[in-house]
Amino acid sequence: MEIIGTLVVGLIAGVIAKLLMPGKDPGGCIITILLGIAGAFVATYLGKLLGIYEPGDTAGFIGATIGAIIILWLYRIILKRKK
After folding, report:
1. I need a surface site. Which of 13, 14, 73, 81 has the fewest CB within 10 A?
2. For the chain, what is the domain count?
3. Domain containing 45: what range?
4. Which region, left, alpha or beta, applies to residue 56 given φ > 0 means left and ψ of -120 to 50 means alpha?
5. 69 within 8 A of 23, measured Cβ to Cβ
């Protein structure tokens, strides 16, 4: 159930991250949503590692959104270097 919760929070966080960081992304909204899901997983496991979340907890909405924004930002930097 923890993974499903993280997926749902990440999906919403990906949409919010796209709204907060407008711009043209290669891959469009689908890639951004997937990056949001990745951000939620990173926030969840990093939060557990730091002791912010208890075992079985998922990242909060704000943490997942921040994780999604960071991953989206890194994604944009990596793709700019390849061009």
Report:
1. 81
2. 1
3. 2-82
4. left
5. no
